[in-house]
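Sanity check

After download, print the first record. It should look like this:
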Amino acid sequence: MTDGHLFSNISLGGRVGNNPGQFRLHSGGVAWKKQGGGKTIDVDKADIISITWMKIPRSYQLSVGTKEGIRYMFKGFREQDVSNLTNFIQKNTGIAPEEKQLSVSGHNWGAVDINGNMLSFNVGSKEAFEVSLADVSQTQLQGKTDVVLEFHVDDTTGANEKDSLMDLSFHVPTSNTQFIGDEERPSAHIFWQKILAIADVGSSEEAVAAFEGIGILTPRGRYTVELHMSFLRLQGQANDFKIQYSSILRLFVLPKSNNPHTFLVITLDPPIRKGQTLYPHIVIQFMTEAVLTTELSLSEEVLAEKYKDRLQSSYNGLEHEVFSKILRGLSGAKVTRPSTFRSCQDGYAVKSSLKAEDGLLYPLEKGFFFLPKPPTLILHEEIEYVEFERHGAGGASMSSHYFDLLVKLKNDQEHLFRNIQRNEYHNLFNFVSAKNLKIMNLGEDGLDGSGAVAAALQSTIDDPDPYLNGIKNQAGDEESDEEDEDFVADKDDSGSPSDDSEEEGSDASLSGGEKEKSSKKEVSSSKPPVKRKPKSGDVEGSEKKKAKKKKKDPNAPKRAIAPFMYFSKTERVNLKNSNPELGVTDIAKKLGEKWQKMSAEERQPYVEQSLVDKKRYAEETAVYRGAAAAPVDVDSGDGLSD
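Expected structure tokens:
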């Protein structure tokens, strides 16, 4: 790069663990972005007050101190990088970087240096460790010589590290010359008071604002949400989470379309942990029209000094707006709202499903967000390409009312959003095109490679489906003209969707088109001629022959059962038990909807059962047709020829 230096494998140190990312030092300041997306840090050069180099095991560390008292530590620089970056920093910021040495002697006796809200413990002229007093939740004076610091329990730190610093004890003798005291106030008391003035002590006693009975979808439950000065707390009946504001990346306020609820999402990095499950997004659901009036538990002096132009003493308005304004003022996180995208129903999102979960897909200015479960945020910069696919692509039956959206990421991960209504295609396609995202199946003529998927999606619902018509034309030569007289559906099996029976259990594909023709040729010499149905042109003849229906042979083999029928028999009982009020038609409709949403892997067990049954039917049919073709002596009583 011409403006500054770029490094691709630099880790951010601190309590949140060592997260690798991309570091950029430019004329305007310092920027760092987590590898794979997520946390970002951007420090303007006007806010930088100190820069320090330190040799650590296997690399060098660059510490950047800001006016707000925050210090960022970037690790992973090489020795040759130090001189190059030092000259660049001094030239563009006017700050001469200092050099510190790390104490590796293991001594625990030294001096304490407090700079801003950073406390460093030095052994001689070398630094042993450094902690942020902003992470201190409580400090206690034990006896006359000991000071104990207790740190915030941050449920996000466990996502990256097994161990987390919980408390730290300092022994300050009465003879200490750095913190000079007297008989009533010894040196340890002076040191304790200095920490007490800087640390975030007492914020856990009383919350700035509290919201009770808030419904949270992820992690699921009803919680009391307390907003403190440096962290938020989620208190539920079974869980209690404490989250530092430094872990909050962004807030999202996303109303539901034609629904009385609004999503408020808190995106975290690192995520919180519950057991072995990580939650990078806290999904809160508010009643859109709920109104709230609240006053903050902050003095006028604190509001004027620390939160000037960010918070006010009281709020009155919609509950989700009040919550987002207070949280934004305390944490400094940015708020993202719906983009310019509008669905065909003038909503902010389109209905779809991800991993068999129904939800809403929000096209935002810088990404896509699927809510509520699993909450999935995809940034535009992470996308390699998107692809519009016909719903159920790959099967024998295609629904012309839905389509799928495949999003391929640069890290080879894929997200398939299914069951999007076809009338949303135009708005979604125009939005994706406007964001200059690569559309994989879009050719120079505006259609995909075959022209079938895009052509079908761009047509209205009343238009003929060119893709489906093409399939029907191809299968027309192989379909049997025989009347299906052997299949009699049970009463409970009524209402099964026709597209599923076409996909898995059409009679024309029982033994394969060519195999069925060859078997017919083998028995043609001995089998009496079968009367065929007239073609569609002879309407009167077909009506007469339908009236004279051939009597079913009770010895004929029972036809094979389609995969959907096996699925229905398995799921119908469960559906009846869970929904006793549903009738036969409603149950069949529910089964059809569930079958449509199932993937090929989920359908595979029923397909295998159907294939076994098809093999059985083919074998019995061959035996039955062979017996029917054998010569029989009518005059013989035992049915055997002389």
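If your output differs, re-run the checksum step. Summary of this record's structure: The CA atoms of residues 73 and 106 lie 22 Å apart.
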